[in-house]
Amino acid sequence: MFEVSVIIPTFNESQNILRVINEIENNLKNCDYEIIVVDDNSPDGTADTVKKYTTSNSRVSCIKRTWKKGLSSAVVEGYALSTKKHICVIDGDGQHDPKNLELFVEAFENNEVDIVIGSRFLNKSETDGLSTARNTLSNLGIKITNFFLSKKVTDPLSGFFIITNQKFGELQEKLYKDGFKILFDLLMLNKQLRVKEVGIDFRSRIAGESKLNISTVFNLVGQIFENISRGLIPANFVVFAFVGTLGVLVHLIMLKILLTQSIGFIVANTLSTLFAMCSNYFLNNYLTFHNIHRLFKERMKGLIKYCFANSFSILANIGVASQFYLSEFSVIASALFGILAGLILNYFLSVNLVFKK
Predict the structure, then answer these.
(1) What is the pLDDT of residues 35-68, one digit of tens each?
(2) CB count, 10 Å around CB of 304?
(3) Which residues, at least 6 apart from 131, have a Cβ–Cβ distance to it below 8 Å?
(4) Angle at CA of residue 290, ends 76 and 345, nearest 5°
(5) Which residues form the Glycosyltransferase 2-like domain (predicted)?
(6) What φ, ψ does residue 116 adopt, rounded to 5°?
(7) How many CB atoms are located within 10 Å of the residue 205 CB?
(8) For residues 234 and 116, what is the distance between their CA atoms, to the nearest angstrom?
């Protein structure tokens, strides 16, 4: 009998989750299965909805996380509770059709494979469950991510797949836990995985809101850099550095605007610096750290901490640049070393002080 632990990461899916669970149960009747819901402390009570259901079905369990967020880390924590020979990852919004699970099981039984992927784009360029813009964005993402895979697949960004428990266990320590595209991470980390793709029905969301946003795109780019560097360059650092670059442009644009208003350089530069720091904080909160500060009070406290951390980074920048310049390095080289030192310190303080989870 085919054994599978179905892991469903959720956030605000109270209106969808029981339907998804019931459909999974109906389509795995001939399998030895368990369902593990990993909820990121959903304000809409998703975890409570599932926990009430578990009283009548011992095959379903629920983890309510208040200590960490993110799809990949949710799957890793679900894996820690799994007891079956295979791991299935499926979304909790109902867009993945559990009827396709039969195709996954057949693929494992008829082929020697390590992972079966539910592809939205097998033998087609669009899927009805996505808008035109989302189809275009997905196809672009697939082309980019396939560039980094030795074996091309039609949907490396799919959130619906089954992998053997053994193979997942070999890779779970290396996975980018803050990521949202765990399948791409698995394929990139182990290029020797025996892969089989099956076409799936991708349905329209019935209730709730999509979690895909621009932050997910930046997160994916950072994930690529982290994997290529074998963890030497954290994904968050890549996005953090990009935000810092934007901050320089914001500073210069703001400075030019203020100077055209006949404001003195010292005042204009000070205001531009403060404005750039504020914009960097809000962009980092949204893009780099996935909106970890949601409430107004949290954001105000975070902004104050960020400005405080930046003061140390500025001192590090000046100190390191001066030291290199006194050691007879060129002006440009000295300035770049100073910027790098300030950036690294700013990132370290941001992770451990400002945006600490």
Answers:
(1) 999 999 899 999 999 999 999 889 999 999 987 6
(2) 12
(3) none
(4) 100
(5) 5-166
(6) -115, 125
(7) 16
(8) 29
The structural domain count of the chain equals: 2
Amino acid in position 103:
L
Angle at the Cα of 140 from the Cα atoms of 287 and 240, rounded to 5 degrees: 20
Percent helix, strand, coil in the chain, to 5, is: 55, 10, 35
Q: Which of 156, 152, 146, 226 is nearest to 184 (CA)?
A: 156
**What gap in Å lies between CA 246 and CA 229, rounded to an integer?**
23
Nearest to 119 by CA among 148, 76, 162, 85: 162
Q: Could you identify the residue written with the tokens 């605000």? A: 12
Structure token pair of residue 139 = 């196809």
- What's the domain range around 114? 3-223
User: Do 274 and 193 lie in a common domain?
Assistant: no
**In a shared domain, residues 80 and 7:** yes
Please indicate, yes or no, if residue 9 is contained in any of the structural domains. yes
